[in-house]
Design brief:
Largest sheet: none
Strand content: under 5%
Number of helices: 5
Shape: flat
Distance between the termini: 39 Å
Structural class: mainly alpha
Length: about 160
């Protein structure tokens, strides 16, 4: 998706989340923009920075919704071709190319959104953001280890 910068959506299954405008295996809720807004106090964001990030988030959600609708439409077309009496190989490959083009466009848009969000921050705020990210990563690794140990104890 256009906005997702963190791996929250990687766990979504095939086609999950379309109804919410989240697209195929991605989503719009957990991204660098919303992450920065949630951390605005810790990052000491100014009112102007918050406003700029909110606008960026709105723009991302709009683009994501448009992309998701297009992707869902192609997915439905692919399903029709896959379940047709006669296999339309050329048609299926053409749809696959269209899906690939959408995904490429989304990846570039993700990078653009991340760059735009990072440009809103000061160098000090980017350092704070990195420290918060490292802390979050460490906490997630510790939780994962605890879950693994708990699971191993049940065997």
């Amino acid at each position: 998706d256009f906005c997702a910068m963190l791996p929250e959506y990687a766990s979504k299954g095939h086609g999950e989340g379309y109804e919410k405008g989240e697209g195929h295996g991605h989503g719009g809720g957990h991204n660098i923009v919303s992450h920065l807004l949630k951390q605005k106090e810790k990052l000491a964001l100014t009112a102007d920075q918050v406003s700029a990030l909110e606008k960026l988030e709105t723009d991302c959600k709009k683009k994501m919704s448009e992309s998701s609708a297009e992707h869902m439409s192609l997915h439905k077309e692919m399903q029709k071709l896959a379940h047709a009496e006669t296999i339309d190989e050329a048609g299926m490959h053409a749809l696959a190319d269209k899906v690939g083009a959408i995904k490429t466009k989304e990846i570039h848009a993700m990078v653009d959104a991340k760059i735009a969000a990072l440009k809103i921050l000061t160098p000090d705020q980017r350092k704070k953001m990195q420290a918060l990210h490292e802390e979050m990563k460490k906490n997630m690794e510790e939780k994962h280890e605890k879950m693994q140990k708990k699971h191993e104890g049940k065997k």
